[in-house]
TrEMBL record:
Signal sequence residues: none
Species name: Peptoclostridium acidaminophilum DSM 3953
Transmembrane segments: 27-47, 84-102, 109-127, 147-164, 171-190, 202-220, 241-261, 267-288, 300-319, 325-345, 357-377, 383-407
Compartment(s) of residence: Membrane
Stored PANTHER family: AMMONIUM TRANSPORTER, RH50, ISOFORM D
One GO process term, biological-process aspect: ammonium homeostasis
Membrane topology: Multi-pass membrane protein
A Gene Ontology cellular-component term: plasma membrane
Gene Ontology MF terms in the entry: ammonium channel activity
Name of this chain's protein: Ammonium transporter
InterPro entries linked to this entry: Ammonium/urea_transptr (IPR029020), NH4_transpt_AmtB-like_dom (IPR024041), RhesusRHD (IPR002229)
This protein's record includes keyword Cell wall biogenesis/degradation: no
Amino acid sequence: MSQAAKSEPQYEAQQLASKQASAPSKALLAFFLFIIIAIAVAFLPSFNENLVQEAVDINAAGANASDSPSEYGTILDTLQYGRSIHILAMLLVGFGFLMAFIRKHGYSSITATFLAVSVAIPSYMLIKSFGGEGFAMPTVDIKTFLFAEFAAASLLIAMGAPLGRLRMDQYLLMGLLFIPAYIFNEWLILESGYFKGFFDTGGSVVIHAFVAYFGIGVIANTIHKFENDPICENDSTSNQFCLLGSMILWLFWPSFTSAIVTPDKVVLTAINTVFALCGSTLATYIFSTIIRGKVEIEDIANAALAGGVAIGSLCDMTTPGYAMLIGIGAGTLSTVGYSILSVKLEKVIKGTDTCGINNLHGMPGILGGLTAIFVAGTPGIQIIGIITTVAIAFVAGRVTGFVISLFGKKAVAYSDKDEFVTEHSA
């Protein structure tokens, strides 16, 4: 974001004049339409054998239902449904407004959020509806839906790295390529049995670290493509929307970490998460003030959430005191990342991390994974799992970045003007 830039009006005039060359082709949009129709058709029982038995079981359960209180499983499903709605609020409202900090990119940020969620949830649930034991998950099941929401959250985080420099169709393409890579890593680390004893209940590593380094892979060696583009700008209004998104994420983060824990650990997990967020929020304020002299909104809107990232691995196993210490460490690390390390990372990877996902999700995610070593019976497995996740993420991100680059670049970086109607008559 520190590159020299042409004057904005001159730049936009030149780029808008050639936007037809970089706009998504009708053939590409037709391809996406075909893909989403194919996804919908693949959920029909006649095309998906796994759904046939599920439909029979659901109908049988409905026929045997009575007016008596629901069974334990149904009660648990209902409770998890409530948390799934909280997570949807995080996805659409929290992440949407958090990424609306770019001054002239609000329509694009929020629309990209809509598109990412809309492609991620069905894609994840479709892929997981196939396969054998140890991989496939029932489609009409609240736990599968929650895992699909985790995948959607992961995609949104990864999009934060190239935010403002991709077109809407390129975000869709990124989503279609991201979900299989995410599912593969999730299966390898959590389900395959190769990493038995790996702790990551709330996704510090499998969600946050994975998506951070996937996003870093996408943007690596791309800085030369945008060296003459305008810089990423924000203002008071866009920053307030960003803060609103951050507060919504803060509010519902306990539902995110406790979504799949056993009922007896829900309260512990929620309290640990809140304590971790309190720790990171307070540490962010202190270190932002110490380092910068005044509080930077970028820090308080992002690094304040780092406690929620880092507590994921131990969210249902530690105590509030340790959770707060983890949050303090994560908030400190994230603030240092935003204030000092971001510029250094940009030079190393030769790419601009728009949202600073390495600072909020990458480093705190790894920190969270490492804290689990103190309770894990197999610290070697924990470390190898973290390294494996980062390696898979970066390689998959590089491949995805290369494929995206084949479809051109956004005509006007950090702006809505090339893809949205921004002026309306009274």
